[in-house]
Amino acid sequence: MLVFNERKAIVSFLEPLIAQKKTIGFVPTMGALHDGHLSLLDKSLKENDVTVMSIFVNPTQFNNPEDLEKYPRNLESDVSKVEAFNKNVLIFAPSVSDIYKNNVTSENFDFDGLENQMEGKYRPGHFDGVGTIVKRLFEIIRPTNAYFGEKDFQQLQIVKKMVEKVNLPVNVIGCPIFREKSGLAMSSRNERLSKEAKEKATIIFKILKAGKKYFEEHSALATQSFVEKEFSKHQDFKLEYFDIAEEKTLLPCIRKSKKKKYRGFVAVFIEDIRLIDNIGL
Ligand code: PAF
């Protein structure tokens, strides 16, 4: 299996394939791979001639230095996982200096307000970091199709907006959230949870499902209070936000409209680990 650690090397490798009009599927990740990532790879392998996965813990998208430091990293085990899954995947695992030279900073983006909601409110600068790295990776890999999980639904909408604004020739494809049997959304951060916390964290999806049902008969505001009350029954959890927002604009739902699609978004701490999830309403 081919693993590239330098941007120059992967650019030279891909150049002739792009010239031959091969389709390139791309799955960007920060490693600590789980079955959710593999499901993105699976889709890419089925839909493209060539599939590239990047593994890069991007420093500019972490607003909290401790979070960056503690982010799980294990390139060797990630490479083995991908190799066991499919040897044809090309891995791109560059160093920070290869991507950022000696200027580890973000570009400033205008995502038409998508960046001001939810994650953007609580993680200042996060989406500028995401936009910066995804744009750089797209410029290096030049993918035809790029695959993103809907667990980071706001990120998915932001990447779509970035591609539209910068005018990059990439189809950004959102893929459904991959869950454990228990309902817990798969996330690299789950690796940091104790066994007990991982079990307790299954209530996140249970509450989201209850919220979805409640929303059928009640307003967004009432549903928000309902969900907040449900979380308050669980002492181990610290709810950061539960918001109901319109899928496209991510603006909060004030009055329900049958013409619009809504989602419930949650960020919650357990054992000081921040987990996010969402559900279509
Ligand atoms: O979702 C992630 O893992 C990251 O935000 C991404 C898209 C790989 C950018 O660093």
Automatic annotation (TrEMBL):
(R)-pantoate binds at Q61, Q155. It catalyses: (R)-pantoate + beta-alanine + ATP = (R)-pantothenate + AMP + diphosphate + H(+). One of its GO terms (biological process) is pantothenate biosynthetic process. The active site is at H37. ATP binds at residues 30-37, 149-152, 186-189. The keyword ATP-binding applies. GO terms for molecular function: ATP binding; pantoate-beta-alanine ligase activity. This is Pantothenate synthetase. It comes from Flavobacterium haoranii.
